[in-house]
Amino acid sequence: MFVGLANELDVETLRTVAVQVASQAADLARTVRDEAVTDGTVDTKSAETDVVTAGDRAAERLVRERLAELRPGEGVLGEEEGGEHALDGLRWVVDPIDGTVNYLYGFPWYAVSLAAQVDGRSVAGAVVEPASGRVWSAALGHGAYLGDRRLRVSGAERLDLALIGTGFAYKVERRREQAATVGKLLAEVRDIRRSGSAALDLCAVAAGWLDGYYERGLNRWDWAAGALIAAEAGAELRLPFPDTDDGLGDGTILCVTPGIGTALKDALRRSGGA
Fold first, then answer.
1. Is 50 annotated as a binding-site member?
2. What CATH number does domain 2-150 carry, 3.30.540.10, 3.30.479.30, 3.40.50.300, 3.40.605.10?
3. CA separation for the pair 168, 96 (Å, rounded)
4. What pTM did the predictor assign?
5. According to the model, what pLDDT value does residue 38 have?
């Protein structure tokens, strides 16, 4: 079904909608931040370190309202308000603020992520940074862009000279496992970065700012837009639902420039998986 429906859709129109709506949500998130993080409406989810603010909720409400106007009748799955979980057909996937802890602290590496998916596969998407105003976007088969600049992954060919991004879970037990992996992987790469926003890490691979990125335990809204942007920039992708067991662990996403793809996978296996 994916190929047939995807071919019938105007993915560039979907990209335009994603950019428009995500940009409006980013403006809202930025303007309400001070009130959103100081008025006592900071709650927690899976752990005390996993926060959600009034800004997250307001941004998602705006996205849903705008999509209802621009794309009536299409399903929406969001981090804060849930929604349609069935993969069939066209559905929008929104993370109203990816990097909420950064948002809470005023660290300017957070973003609004919005993607259109068909049968569970992204066909258009945008990632917008409220603090900087940068707009990342892509449409299936039409390339990836930062503003008007077309993106291309780095030409890295040596893992020992590669800069790799990752992220950590909120639960202590998983963090210990991930820290052990990082400790081993550090000996095989140039360095490792942990920014706190999966969507922006994926965009960083697309721009060549990172040579690769991996993380375990992401939700669909974390990667739906960023993974498409990276893929359209030439990255190799391993999404969190692989058909075969490759030793990287269930729920692991891997996004890497092709020149070091095999080497990074091998290094992660030696390090105990993501």
1. no
2. 3.30.540.10
3. 20
4. 0.91
5. 60
